[in-house]
């Protein structure tokens, strides 16, 4: 059983963290603007599913490897960065929309879902975040520390899905409005592609002086 006071503090802290846009939120916004609210929600679910991997890793102590091994951290970081840059380049290389045909074949929802999973799983900072964040709210005398971490992690994932879902709905609605303008059809791929590449570059160059 989780301590009520610790749980309240956890909810407050998690809320503050979640309402602050990070790389995952920017990824979801780009997806939503590019392909609509449903794609944004699906990418949100993918990011949430990927987060559960980090929760399990932190609870089982796997994330400690990333905290102590510079090689493991760097490998995972650069894989994630390369994947985001790949998504961005692929988006930039799409053909310009046909002025006489505003509708193009969308990416499948299952593909969007798994892209969200991969983007989050290959982010070592998410692993380190949970390794540092979750133990702060564990009440050791109550026992079952691993179970407490898993429960807190799942609560964070659920809160994150709702929070990111709001961003997806907002950005998807804005994207739908913008897509009524032909000019936006020509530049939307540059927006999405640039966001993905920027996120990849940021992931690659950040944390280089990690101890």
Number of strands: 0
The overall pLDDT, averaged over residues, is 78
Supply the number of helical segments: 9
Low-confidence segments: 99-103
Gross geometry: globular
Structural category: mainly alpha
End-to-end separation? 35 Å
Helix content: over 70%
Molecular structure report:
- Helices cover 77% and strands 0% of the residues.
- It has helices at 4-18, 23-35, 37-60, 63-68, 70-92, 109-121, 124-133, 145-178, 182-205.
- It is globular, with a radius of gyration of 19 Å.
- With 211 residues, it is mostly helical.
- The chain has one domain (40-97, 107-205).
List the helices and strands and how they pair.
Elements: H1 4-18, H2 23-35, H3 37-60, H4 63-68, H5 70-92, H6 109-121, H7 124-133, H8 145-178, H9 182-205
